[in-house]
Amino acid sequence: MLVVMKAQATPEQIQAVCDAIAQLGFRAHPLPGAQRTAIGITGNQGEVERGNLEALPGVAEVIRVTKPYKLASRDVKEEDTVIRFAGTDAALGGNGLAAIAGPCSIESREQAFAIAEKIAAAGAQFFRGGAYKPRTSPYSFQGLGLDALKIMAEIRDQFGLRIVTEAIDSETLDLVAEWADVIQIGARNMQNFSLLKRAGRLRKPVLIKRGLSATLEEFLMAAEYVMSEGNYQVSLCERGVRTFSDHARNTLDLSVIPAIRRVSHLPILVDPSHGTGRRDSVLPMARAAVAAGADGILVEVHHQPEKALSDGPQSIYPDQFARMMDDLAQIAPVVGRRLARGIRVETPVAEHA
Amino acid sequence: MLVVMKAQATPEQIQAVCDAIAQLGFRAHPLPGAQRTAIGITGNQGEVERGNLEALPGVAEVIRVTKPYKLASRDVKEEDTVIRFAGTDAALGGNGLAAIAGPCSIESREQAFAIAEKIAAAGAQFFRGGAYKPRTSPYSFQGLGLDALKIMAEIRDQFGLRIVTEAIDSETLDLVAEWADVIQIGARNMQNFSLLKRAGRLRKPVLIKRGLSATLEEFLMAAEYVMSEGNYQVSLCERGVRTFSDHARNTLDLSVIPAIRRVSHLPILVDPSHGTGRRDSVLPMARAAVAAGADGILVEVHHQPEKALSDGPQSIYPDQFARMMDDLAQIAPVVGRRLARGIRVETPVAEHA
Amino acid sequence: MLVVMKAQATPEQIQAVCDAIAQLGFRAHPLPGAQRTAIGITGNQGEVERGNLEALPGVAEVIRVTKPYKLASRDVKEEDTVIRFAGTDAALGGNGLAAIAGPCSIESREQAFAIAEKIAAAGAQFFRGGAYKPRTSPYSFQGLGLDALKIMAEIRDQFGLRIVTEAIDSETLDLVAEWADVIQIGARNMQNFSLLKRAGRLRKPVLIKRGLSATLEEFLMAAEYVMSEGNYQVSLCERGVRTFSDHARNTLDLSVIPAIRRVSHLPILVDPSHGTGRRDSVLPMARAAVAAGADGILVEVHHQPEKALSDGPQSIYPDQFARMMDDLAQIAPVVGRRLARGIRVETPVAEHA
Amino acid sequence: MLVVMKAQATPEQIQAVCDAIAQLGFRAHPLPGAQRTAIGITGNQGEVERGNLEALPGVAEVIRVTKPYKLASRDVKEEDTVIRFAGTDAALGGNGLAAIAGPCSIESREQAFAIAEKIAAAGAQFFRGGAYKPRTSPYSFQGLGLDALKIMAEIRDQFGLRIVTEAIDSETLDLVAEWADVIQIGARNMQNFSLLKRAGRLRKPVLIKRGLSATLEEFLMAAEYVMSEGNYQVSLCERGVRTFSDHARNTLDLSVIPAIRRVSHLPILVDPSHGTGRRDSVLPMARAAVAAGADGILVEVHHQPEKALSDGPQSIYPDQFARMMDDLAQIAPVVGRRLARGIRVETPVAEHA
């Protein structure tokens, strides 16, 4: 259920509607738009009596929402969501393209800095690196944990890159929220509803990767879990789904981009590294993602992929990343975008060379 | 890596090998078999020097295991695992067939007792019921929580049924371990590795449901996560996978049963309720599962499915469950099994009728 | 559109309705049932004016059929279709279970007779063997063609087995129709609509295998293609679909059996050989198919599978087939069936031993 | 098996090797490259004795090919195949991008000409239109047949567009080969091996659409069937595969483009119309296809899609096609291509307006 306020509704009227919703035992989610404010109503206690709300001052109409996702839907919020980061021009959503790059896992301070320097120089605005790794095998490298988080915080200070890293459970969620700028929820946790709800109680941006067999609706419902707790800074990331097709690690489903645009206001990024699992497919699919309308790219870069502790075969070299950035910068205007290149560092940062 | 002891190896020799493994910085998992003991070695620090171990007294051979799953593999333990429950003839694995039945969610004490009485009368040995529900929508019924666990504990006392219920995160895991007999890990958490590891530190039987797009190897690796922490009481449950096929809620992949038998010693059960999502397909697929060699059936039963708060359309009626038990009892001998009918209650339990 | 005649409608009244339909430019398909006759109307020229037909003598009602399949639907014909073979008790559909067995390819007269003798002795009623092989590679063995058809005709005479073999194009269709008893349309041709239509113009039973990614509706529409041309002797065969699941060659979708029973009157068989691609999975899945309600089994048997020119790894040995028949005979009564064992040859047929 | 000739080998030496291969009972396929000629050997009679061939004059080496596809492989022919059309600059493969556009079905001369005029004006080099339609339902519009072929021949004369249309069986294959410029083999016939072989005996370009569940290897084996008969003018077309993903009609698998480039020299096009089934996804996915490296686009255009007899919802309007061409022209240089705009007709063709 959704209450659409009149364009000229006052803050007091909006508050009065929220109070009325709360009195009915529901939860009100005021969502300011460019023209007017909509108020989403959530709660599982049944149906709201629509008449009561429609009679309140400042209310334009009350709409029944039939899709199971509400707060993630364009019905509730027509304008695209843009997640901004104070003190930078980095953003998820909006006219710019986000470039998130870095190694699968943080392996050491040296490795992380070597890569960060290169990707910052190529114009990335975000650094990604795994501190806690959800590995298929209990005997595989599981990440450096808190040490990795601290290394990445240093990278933020040094290079001005925003930090994106994955939380895998409630303990690591709190740590990631403390040290990073964007909390990543991985594909294997896309339906870990306890984790999603807990992330919803934080006030940090969340990036949710699509589950290996998630439908569009399930993908948006994962966002809805976070948003239903009051955290509206959610972005989505397509990273390939599991099909019979065996020429790539996963099947990158780029047509989900226009499909999400139709029904949701949330930013949608693409990870061509996990999406293909092959270094020589990453660049073509990164270009394709931007051409299809993605809000950004999340890509694995490693300066020595043959020595990487995880996902070496799908990590690209820093010079390949630089070429990718050039290609994306050329394609961006065709789709009405521009590639905002963070603080492009043209001169090498000597101390970490 | 796997150390196979000679048939006549003494307990002291076995302990000495375990100590040697620990000194190398690895973890030893002694796995007694009918003929001889094998000792699995796990740990991610690299390769063990095989020669050192082969020279120890009582060692028959040291085998390199190429599959990523070790403790779950028949290479490590040839005999089928049987999980027994003290004071009952209920078991997961072995010659008997396990019948686990009950409602999707515990909705009230009345509902739970009404169903438990019926399924006990029909010969089930296990009662299943959801206390914590992983629902796709944050606005759906999420379960009664601890109250549901307490109701099920009463059911155990009243009807002699062992209790199977799902844990969805670390908090609920501890509660489920305290109140129930078997901890269920749901399909959506099959790769929630933090939860699996934590379950591995408990000493309660764990039943892992196959993820919606899990390969056989990933399914066994989920078991490996639990076992690598020392909890070897693991059983598996096929519940349908996600494919293009749209005539059922999921595609029940029964051929995974002989496939698992070939490579693993763990019990494999089948859930025809989630596997099909349709009441009129449950009985045919339950029969098919047993005919294919399953170790048991996990099925949703509700006395008033049209009023159920979750999964009504796939819940069968108690009299359908009774007929299922009769059919399974007839098919069991064809596959060298028998359907052990718990304490079949022939007379109605008056106080809960 | 479907015209349901009254129970007491005369043959003349039925004919009059058919004539009226033809005059409207449509095609009438009279389908006699146990109680009454229904007349299916097909043709793509648009909507029939229902009123005209309802007024005709003997008409009970005129029903609009919403599913795209009409003649294959239970709406049009409620009773199960049974395809009988004159002079034998072999049948596809009905209370009996059909057992169709034989080599993937006919390789020589000696090979074919050696296998036929064994499967006849074990009680099969049908012999299957490939004369024309749709091979993925142009460089693989493509079948013996007409010679194979002649060998199988001899097998029919010698052992009383009905012959099932695949047609792959219009040329081979005419030859198969001439020499065999059942025309098989393979999975790769399930949407070869030209071939289906041509098979519809023949008056020989047709067995259609499910395409690798065919939905239930597409599967039934393939049958509809044959039936729309007037050939109603159609049976279906599940043989595994293509999914991400990699432990078997295909994913055998047994839940399609109850799903087809709900909406269609056509017999549905199962091929556990192609369905699994592994010898040791064939017997468990054959049992499961019958337990799920299949009308029969189509299975590859070879006396020397290690020397077979095609599909050796999934062919079972004759003694495994004999055990399968024993198992199926025991499961059959649980699902209200019996395994009619053709003319079970107890004594060896000397001249081909 | 593949014989690689020396760069300086004479035509007589090449012929002598071909003769030697033929004498051994195999088939020789001479494949001239920029530097040297390779000779593919096909036939299923077993292994060639490599030594005999290596000793012949002009032979550089004899290579065993392990992939089942040979003639379609880059091992046999390193240079990209380019299919040219005499008297035009239209091509499939090479530096240019092919734009193939037109209605799903030819419905009338008026409809076809109205669309052809628009797409020619926007710069397409090829006109596509269905004459024979493989429809899922026997009751759906099946195409105008020969009349449609004649209309398209007129369109070629009038607008200079090359004609692409589908053949569905041997009868229509001969007609399509007579009237059209490119023979399309549809997704549902991708493993209709009889049709592929027959197309291989013609000397017209063949465009093969990927089957709904075809792996990369099966896709290339379909090409191999055509090529093994001596017709090397084969191009491929990705059109979406069938997966669980339900937000689009099919899942367009664009990562197959770099995957095919790695192993095959054949052109690979993309059909975003069937690939998505939604008008508003066609343009984004067409851009993505070119950005991923496709050799061209095959797209459905209709001037009145709401009245189309087939595939209306996925057909774009002529002005959307014109915008697509503009977008593709901008993306092409990023991937080292250019969009050759046939004979771009700037002035309206009056007599068909």
Describe the protein.
- The structure is a homotetramer of 353-residue chains.
- By secondary structure, chain A is of the alpha/beta class.
- Chain A folds into 2 domains: 2-63, 2-Layer Sandwich (Alpha-Beta Plaits); 83-352, Aldolase class I (TIM Barrel, Alpha-Beta Barrel), CATH 3.20.20.
- Helices cover 33% and strands 17% of the residues of chain A.
- In chain A, strands 13-12-11-10-9-8-7-14 form an 8-stranded parallel beta sheet. In chain A, strands 2-3-1-4 form a 4-stranded antiparallel beta sheet. A two-stranded antiparallel ribbon of chain A has the order 5-6.
- The A-D interface holds A 213, 215-216, 241, 243-248, 251-259, 262, 275-276, 278, 280-281, 284-285, 287-293, 327, 330-331, 333-335 and D 213, 215-216, 241, 243-248, 251-259, 262, 275-276, 278, 280-281, 284-285, 287-293, 327, 330-331, 333-335.
* Oligomeric status: homotetramer
| Low-pLDDT sequence parts of chain A | 344-353
CATH topology-level fold name of the largest domain in chain A: TIM Barrel
Terminus-to-terminus distance of chain A: 56 Å
- The number of E-state strands of chain A comes to 14
- What's the CATH architecture name of the largest domain in chain A? Alpha-Beta Barrel
